[in-house]
């Protein structure tokens, strides 16, 4: 996958919009307008701060279903993504948690979103939702049936989960790309807000052999320049929130600070 063609940069920064609880979720507040308003504010803050892409997640829908989400969630996310697309010019993607790649691809294909994140594309992971099995075969066929060109960003040994077999990172990366046909892979720490190990990033990049590797969690303005030495891009959320607290909305000042820190080493090489 050509990152420059998609994001107009070879080292993209993708900011995350964490949606407030959606209809049918345990903490649904009853107002879709409130969900949309906050999503629009956060997307605007991210785009004006200089990110190269935005990914929309139903993050506050926990506890998550492990497979297919309710149709109301799909409908709400479709509306939100379209509203965000009307406000920003950067590529927009989505992640339907916990692992509803089919719905993510469907929404993305219908609204012309450019990419999706799938937490478990291949293998079997033990998670707080139970055992989640990758469905690469079904998802890749579904994308083809839809005539879609949406890119699949797949986590490798995803956070908040443990593999059932011995976790060999090199094998997992190769399987995700060569057998799961992921367009890019994502490496995270053990949980939301936890960065991946630098050596693991280097191993993943070597195993990916040219397929883009993204940092999936734990990047901050303090560590992003170091992490990006071994990765092709970064997906960031927690450190961009007000006071760095996950429940808070996006802080435009933190976005600008992060983007500047990520870009500084790149500019110095020019």
Brief sketch in words of this structure:
This protein has 270 residues and is α/β, with parallel strands linked by helices.
Describe the structure.
The protein has 270 residues and is α/β, with parallel strands linked by helices. 38% of the residues lie in helices and 17% in strands. The protein is built from nine helices and eleven strands. The strands form two sheets. An eight-stranded parallel beta barrel has the order 1-2-3-4-7-9-10-11, surrounded by five helices. Helix 2 (32-49) links the parallel strand 1 and strand 2. Helix 2 packs across helix 3, helix 3 (71-85) runs parallel beside helix 4 and helix 4 (101-111) packs parallel to helix 5 (136-145). It starts with a helix and ends with a helix.
SSE layout and pairing:
Elements: H1 3-7, E1 13-18, H2 32-49, E2 53-57, H3 71-85, E3 92-95, H4 101-111, E4 115-118, E5 124-127, E6 130-133, H5 136-145, E7 151-155, E8 161-163, H6 169-179, E9 184-187, H7 198-208, E10 213-215, H8 224-227, E11 233-236, H9 252-269
Parallel strand pairs: 1-2, 1-11, 2-3, 3-4, 4-7, 7-9, 9-10, 10-11
Antiparallel strand pairs: 5-6, 5-8
Helix pairs in contact: 2-3, 2-9, 3-4, 4-5, 6-7
Biggest β-sheet: count, sense, barrel?
8 strands, parallel, barrel
Number of discrete helical segments: 9
Poorly predicted parts: none
Strand order of the largest sheet: 1-2-3-4-7-9-10-11
**Which sequence of SSEs, written as H and E, runs from N to C?**
HEHEHEHEEEHEEHEHEHEH
> Taking all residues together, what is the mean pLDDT?
94
Helix share, percent = 25-40%
Radius of gyration: 17 Å
What is the count of β-strands? Answer: 11
The separation of the N and C termini measures 24 Å
Derived structural class: alpha/beta
